[in-house]
């Protein structure tokens, strides 16, 4: 779901980055890699994601799950919802 470098400001002539494209079916989820080239920035990325998601949740007006419970992966190792659609009425400042 996340792409490193997407939020970096580019040259002023470039249009702002748009939403992430949907992941093609069958393509594995983006992670931090493993082994000797495991992502060295993963602690910072996790901290940033935590701060961003906390602020997003604070700003959503009346957030609610579109599907409750959401559809879960059929995988005992990689657990979690396949997607988590959230509806909301507006954004608070
Ligand atoms: C959501 C955010 C991020 C994701 C999903 C991500 C993902 C990855 C992945 C998959 C790799 C391994 C690439 C490979 O196997 O060759 C990697 C490597 C790396 N990442 Fe990240 N990354 C993120 C954020 C960051 C940040 C914030 C930094 C630095 C501040 C960073 C610095 C690096 C570096 C230096 C490597 C190379 C490590 C090596 O080759 O030994 N990454 N990242």
From TrEMBL:
Residues 1-34 are annotated as: Disordered. Coiled coil: none annotated. Keywords: Heme, Iron, Metal-binding, Monooxygenase, Oxidoreductase. Residues 9-27 have a biased composition (Pro residues). Signal peptide: none annotated. SUPFAM superfamilies: Cytochrome P450 (SSF48264). Pfam families: p450 (PF00067). InterPro entries: Cyt_P450, Cyt_P450_CS, Cyt_P450_sf. Belongs to the cytochrome P450 family. This is Cytochrome P450.
């Amino acid at each position: 779901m996340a792409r490193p470098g997407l939020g970096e400001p580019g040259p002023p002539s470039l249009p702002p980055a748009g939403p992430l494209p949907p992941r093609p079916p069958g393509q594995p989820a983006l992670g931090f890699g493993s082994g000797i080239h495991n992502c060295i920035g993963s602690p910072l990325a996790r901290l940033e994601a935590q701060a961003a998601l906390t602020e997003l949740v604070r700003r959503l007006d009346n957030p609610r799950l579109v599907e409750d419970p959401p559809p879960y992966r059929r995988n005992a190792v990689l657990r979690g919802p396949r997607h988590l659609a959230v509806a909301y009425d507006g954004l608070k400042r």
